[in-house]
Amino acid sequence: MTDNQTVQAYIEAWTHSIESISELVAPLPEGSWNRPTECPGWSVRDIVAHIIAIESELLGDPRPIHSLPRDLRHVTSDFARYVELPVDKRRCHTALEMTSELEYTVIRRARALRNAKQGPEDLVRLPLGPLARDVPYHQLLRIRVFDVWVHEQDLRRALHTPGNLDSPGALITRDFLLPQLPKAVADKAGAPAGTTVVLDVTGPVEFLRTVRVDAAGHGTVDESISLAPDVQLTMDWETYLRLACGRGRPGPVTVDGDKELAERILSNFAVTI
Fold first, then answer.
1. Closest Cα partner for 105 from 156, 50, 31?
2. Domains in the chain, ordered, with CATH?
3. What is the dihedral of CA 153, 158, 160, 164, to 10 degrees?
4. Cα-based distances in Å from 165 to 20, 21, 91, 204
5. 102 pairs with which residues across the strands?
6. Residue 273 pLDDT exceeds 70
7. How far apart are CA 159 and CA 37, in angstroms?
């Protein structure tokens, strides 16, 4: 796949997920917008507000002028405050206001993506407040696919409307998360040198990966099979997604091998912000 084909694949995956969100929330009655999600402190309304806010900022819209309440316990960092401000601003918006703004934002953003002049490697600004940085255009698109698809799944679980677990966004999310497995095993869980950990994921998106920790304590991940790993973790795709994205401690997870090390890995599995 060429770089331009990769960019187009990311745009198509983003379009599929964000339009799925729009279709999902369009018929919701007012009360359903207040349903809690697995994102700490956030309701269905808040997730949709977050998506609107990020896509609007990418369009160049100014951030809203707003003061956050002081009693939001889930807001614990400057980055969290940055993300929370446009979300809190929309907490008084009605269902119609939310769906109308989402639809309008999707239309504008889709047009901007179609007309974009950036090449795949051109540097663009990733708007993350205190974590903002310049990244290649293709990387920004990949991050947006990941964020939108993961939040689509947050909404589906909150609304008991499963779907799209094997969509284009799901496959891009898999490839986004897998390189970060060594961080969970070697860095956060502190697996000792020489450790091998096998991850066997089943379901709509299935894969088998081995994380190896070298003599220097550095972790790598590959597709080769380890016949006698120190730990093997077997779980379904949605459980893996929720663990990697810090959505609580779902299950079931089958553990073979070193139970104490497995527990450390599972307790440090989240690799997202």
1. 50
2. 3-164 (1.20.120.450), 180-267 (3.30.1050.10)
3. -10
4. 12, 13, 28, 6
5. none
6. no
7. 9
In 3-state terms, what secondary structure has residue 198?
Answer: strand
- What confidence tens digit (pLDDT) does each residue in 160-187 have? 999 999 999 999 999 999 999 999 999 9
pTM above threshold 0.85: yes
Copy the structure tokens of residue 83.
């993300």
With CA atoms as reference, report the closest residue to 9 among 108, 152, 142.
Answer: 142
Beta strands in 144-190 (DSSP E): none
Closest CA to 254 of 208, 217, 199: 199
Contact assessment for residue 30 and residue 107, using Cβ atoms and an 8 Å cutoff? no
**Per-residue pLDDT tens over the stretch 53-71:** 999 999 999 999 998 888 8
142 contact partners, CB below 8 Å, separation of at least 6: 10, 172, 176
Burial of 192 (0-12, 13-18, 19+ CB in 10 A): exposed
Amino acid residing at 130 = P
* DSSP secondary structure string for all residues of 61-128: PPPPP----S--TT--SHHHHHHHHHHHHTTT--HHHHHHHHHHHHHHHHHHHHT----TT-EEEE--
Dig out the tokens for 98 from the structure. Answer: 């939310």
